[in-house]
Amino acid sequence: MSQDxxxxxxxxxxxxxxxxxxxxxxxxxxxxxxxxxxxQSASAFGTSLYFPSSSVFPLSPELESKLSLYxxxxxxxxxxxxxxxxxxxxxxxxxxxxxxxxxxxxxxxxKTGLIDGKELDWPGMKxxxxxxxxxxxxxxxxxxxxxxxxxxxxxxxxxEERKGKE
Length: 166
Ligand SMILES: [Zn+2]
Ligand SMILES: [Zn+2]
What we know:
alpha+beta, 30% strand
């Protein structure tokens, strides 16, 4: 599959269907064990595929008109999470974050399970496990795990910002 093509993504009912930005722009994938992802996914963890926010926003008027938006205030970071979902089947589609000063976070994420399984190389993506300090399931030996975020990679900038605040 060409790196120029986006990943095709659709919700459970098919109302929402579009392509991500070109896969060459992806910042990788992570299984996130934070408590927000547990609540949001109603499961043990959430799997996200990251892209630069600037490659996704602003959304096309057509897509924006189909999506519903729930805004969640994250008391730990002070950011507001923009949680986009399908109004018909309720499936969460993607997340972006807005900092207290109104600036959008540098990376956003798509819910990876919405991508056609044949399009995504799950084993080859070598997903990290992040926020494992709140994991509710056993983590296997050999998995790439981080208490919070990795020092490098897709979330580097945000980790530095968190450290700066502490
Ligand atoms: Zn739907
Ligand atoms: Zn999370």
